[in-house]
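Study this one:
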Amino acid sequence: MKLGLCIPLRRYATPDFIRTLGSVSEQLGFDSLWVGEHVVMFDDHKSDYPLTGEVMPGDPRDNIEIDLFTSLAYLAAVTSRIRLGSYVAILPQRNPVYTAKEAANIDWLSNGRFDFGVGIGWSVQEYEAVAAKFEKRGARCRSYLEVIKSLWCDPVSEYEDEFYKLEPCLFYPKPVQQPHPPIFYGGQSDKTFERVAEQAQGWDSIGVEPVRLASQIKKLEKALEKQGRSRDEITINACPYPDEYDHETFRQYKEAGVDQVILLHEPTSSSTGELESLLNNLAERHMDFVKSL
């Protein structure tokens, strides 16, 4: 089983911090490094945080992340092996053509090391802030992915449905990975499994304990079967956040069918020394065990 990291890049994420994160994570042997996305936050949220069913914990000023794709481009420049991913890009609130360009750019600059994690989001106000419609965001996400895949894969790209019209156009450079970077859907609902089965190469799970995740994987397998696909076509990432975890947790994830565990930890400062200690501690405690599974 593989071991990845998701370190939120917030106000403490200075250039030195990000360089240290990339270089040290790679040196220690982590398989992947994931970056999240929230462009704005609010003192009074209208939407509950899906991981807790309550208001998002903490000061919202501490939960705003620096830009997703420029951060990944920066990480691409200071690494050469570790895979880089979005965990997750909130696709329905983005322009799909610009997103296709930004994501392809990461794959190009990293020489084919990008994993494209997407989700439909949960904050009504975040959608409103970027003038995007919150309603039908699941269907819009599907549409935008089709736009993006056409831009990535077709010599002449075009697409049209109720959500987007792309006139015939040229898009280059194409991503390094063929036919395109792996697409990972994030989420926990039955609709998520249908979306994974229809459009994706992976599923990003967060905050689901191994027993419940095993039952969700069975739902995913049924959705894949309906699409004429098999389980071995899908990579499953599991992140135990915000729950506590130990080696038994990892063993149970492996038995459930997880391919990679993503450890999510939030540093408390921009100190590169503190960050190095955190990364070394995680590697020392978990690397050999997880990779032996």
In short: Residues 272-292 form the longest helix (21 residues). The chain is about 40% helix and 15% strand.
